[in-house]
Amino acid sequence: MHTKVKAVKMLLGGKWVSTDETFEVRNPQNNEPIATVPSATKKDMTEAIEKADRTYRHTQVWPAHERMRILYRVVDYMKQHAETFAETIASEGSKTINEARGEVKRATQTIQISAEEARRMNGETINFDQNEGSENRVGYHYRFPIGVIGAITPFNDPLNLVAHKIGPAIASGNAIVVKPASVTPLSALLLAEAFTEAGLPEGFLSVITGSGREIGETLVTHPAVQMVSFTGGSAAGERISQRAGTKKVSMELGSNSPVIVLKDADLHDAVQSCVSGAFSAVGQNCIGVQRIYVEKELYPSFLDTFVSRTLELNVGDKMDELTDVGPMINQHEAERVEAWVNEAVAEGAKVEAGGKRSGAFYYPTVLTHVPSKAKIAVDEIFGPVVLIQAVENLAEAVERSNDVNYGLQAGVFTSNINHAFYTIKHMNVGGIMINDSSDYRIDAMPFGGTKGSGIGREGIRYAMESMTEQKVVCFRLQENML
After folding, report:
1. Are the CB atoms for 340 and 375 separated by under 8 Å?
2. Are residue 158 and residue 84 in the same domain, yes or no?
3. Is there a single domain that holds both residue 265 and residue 248?
4. Are 454 and 444 in contact (CB under 8 A)?
């Protein structure tokens, strides 16, 4: 039985439009088409940007209470249509229906927090009289929106990562043009529908679908775009940085996340957390667990328990509520992961579990004895593969954890607070989760990394800070005028 293919429009400057050229969105589980979506041109993208710029410039007053009201209405809409959002995420992407429902809850929270932060976008008074001769000066600084934000989002969280762009942009008073991943544009368009139903003024939001090669360059280089917010791969991030020039740039570029398990850790807690962190969303997760370093005394029992738990995972139909792991985003990506694993095995790695592919499905895989310079050990696998290695002590684990060009998040399992603080001090990452895997995040926290993992921080308040500028106001008081 074939799913009915629906024709979907994109949101351009507040209007739902179609184009002569379209492309298909396919269900990665069976490769069946589920929708046709407009294939925008450079002209379409330019029109969206210029409409956003005109709307922003001509909106003399857009008070916080109006922005908040719109965002709260979006929250209500998302709650009322939660299952539609979840089914859309699961149909076009890799997540199981349960994982998709979890993403809808998070995305709804992201928009709600954005509404709450809109009321807290404050400035500070400045003590100008700290300088001699400035005793008669008083003032403050406040934050103001910068204009048009260009956002490019990936496929792995097709709703929440879009919400992390749109929510802070609207909360801080900016206009935004979003280019979602071509393989998963439907969730972004559904969120755009929520904003139009909530009464967002036309022009403040566009969601433009199409090829990154065709429209991405325009979004990054157009002079009206004041900031580019990008989540994706490091190679694309470097190209964007080169093309963006002096624009503000915020980037989250993935990772190769390590977890350290010390001999004093709770074994079963560490295994449960790391299995979930490695294989949820089929491992297509920027903070997913990729490398686990286990102190040698605990290593044999940790490995045995981890492999047993991995083999219990149910791989299958992502719409089945009993499924733990669904397909990857497409067969090409599954073949890439297969090739990386095979290359590591040829270099001496041992497959403890998994290591097989069926179409777009790649089974949860555990590797040991992986050479430290193997591609799978130093790059981001972005698939359901985890490397487990024994280490002599904490110092070695930290050194090996740091020995890659990524630094997004890490985890450490220990009952020793001194060991915990050693990792906090010495690990070069943007976030350290103590007695959690690297795969833990709340949407209100600052989120970003070091080294090749990106530039700046997301998380609603922190994204709003990057989407605004500070303006200093200083009064020189003339008391002799009284």
Report:
1. yes
2. yes
3. no
4. no
- For residue 392, give the CATH number of its domain: 3.40.309.10
Task: State yes or no: is 474 an active-site residue.
Answer: no
- Pairwise CA distance, residues 258 & 366, whole Å: 14
Among residues 103, 193, 286, 352, which one is catalytic?
Answer: 286
Same domain, 382 and 339: yes
Half-sphere exposure of 191 (CA within 13 A, CB side): 32
For the question of residue 286 being annotated catalytic, the response is yes
Asked whether residue 366 falls in the same domain as residue 234, the answer is: no
Predicted confidence (pLDDT) per residue in 217-258, tens digit: 999 999 999 999 999 999 999 999 999 999 999 999 999 999
Helix axes 160-171, 97-118, angle to 10 degrees: 10
Helix, strand, coil % over all residues of the chain, rounded to 5 = 40, 25, 35
Length, in residues, of the chain: 482
Write out pLDDT tens, residues 176-199: 999 999 999 999 999 999 999 999
Element (H, E) at 66: helix 64-80
Q: Which of 99, 117, 252, 380 is catalytic?
A: 252
Distance of alpha carbon 141 from alpha carbon 133, whole angstroms = 20
Q: Which two tokens stand for residue 366?
A: 């555990």
Q: Between the CA of residue 20 and those of 9, 25, 399, what are the distances in Å? A: 11, 16, 55
CB 38 within 8 A of CB 11: no
